[in-house]
Amino acid sequence: xxxxxxxxxxxxxxxxxxxxxxxxxxxxxxxxxxxxxxxxxxxxxxxxxxxxxxxxxxxxxxxxxxxxxxxxxxxxxxxxxxxxxxxxxxxxxxxxxxxxxxxxxxxxxxxxxxxxxxxxxxxxxxxxxxxxxxxxxxxxxxxxxxxxxxxxxxxxxxxxxxxxxxxxxxxxxxxxxxxxxx
Length: 182
Fold this sequence. Notes:
By secondary structure, the chain is an alpha+beta fold. It contains 7 helices and 4 strands; from the N terminus they run ααααααββαββ.
């Protein structure tokens, strides 16, 4: 993953426990890198180790930490100069989700080796269905948090749930907008 993800993770950890929490986490997980560079690629295992180590240190389920980090991620990238790009992709949660692949294509111009996930939104009888495909395993809770974070961007409330047995080769989430922005 690019260092930007790990920089966001550092901000997440430090927001909750301060710089010393980040340092302790890096020591506990054996991370040789403390200051990640946004445009550099790092082994995915380093990110998984840091997130897993944080969950373990706090006695929290990994899925809960990933969901919380996903929601935090959206607010953090807004502070990193990406808010206008997010808003160009849509003016509400479902529109932005529908345009995520296009958004990632534009981001890939600055991150040429980006292995971004793929998202496809379809209207369903009981809310939209978000199809998520990724080369990386175990990130479904992070996606749930991302959707919640996107809803916050637009002052909307959503309900996001993983559809059991939604598809054999990818995850499917049901997204219901409970309160639209005024």
